[in-house]
Amino acid sequence: MPFPFSRNIDIETKPKRAIIGLIYELVQVVAISLAIIIPVRYFLIQPFYVKGASMEPSFYDHEYLIIDELSYRFGQPNRGDIVVFHYPNDTKQYFIKRVIGLPGETVEVADGKIKIYNDKEPNGMILHESYLDQDKTLTTRTVTLKSDEFFVLGDNRIASLDSRYFGAVKRDLVVGKVWLRGWPLDRWKIFSLQNYIAPNP
User: Model pTM?
Assistant: First the structure.
């Protein structure tokens, strides 16, 4: 005989509700995480591994870098910025180089030196590249850049496929600039936003 005022309870209901509630919470967590991670991953920062020796001694093979993609949505690359971009001859590949020449400038590479001609320096200025620790063996080349083009070089000039060979890089191919080196830990570094290159005094 049922106990007075008792109610029939479906013992299967609570576990089912608990499972449904757990799934709902999990879906919420995943949705919120994706809403945060996807914009960060595709619009703000992006991880890259260095492949090859073209940027030595600044970067070595297999170093892990974080690329700042946000800055270039509001501004342009500066001389000295180390940028990641789509290789012009195969846009599925990514390259990392240093910005040397800016839009509208003429870049002259000769006699182991780089000379920049622009409105401020009509007679040209020789770049002082203190980050290089080797003899700057360079291919002779003179290029006048269009309004949307950049001239880029690897820091390891004798082992770099760069604008001396494949030409200028268009602005829309530039992904972002190096912001942080996360690996190896003993070379961990946040890179300054200032220019890396200055003209000779």
Answer: 0.71
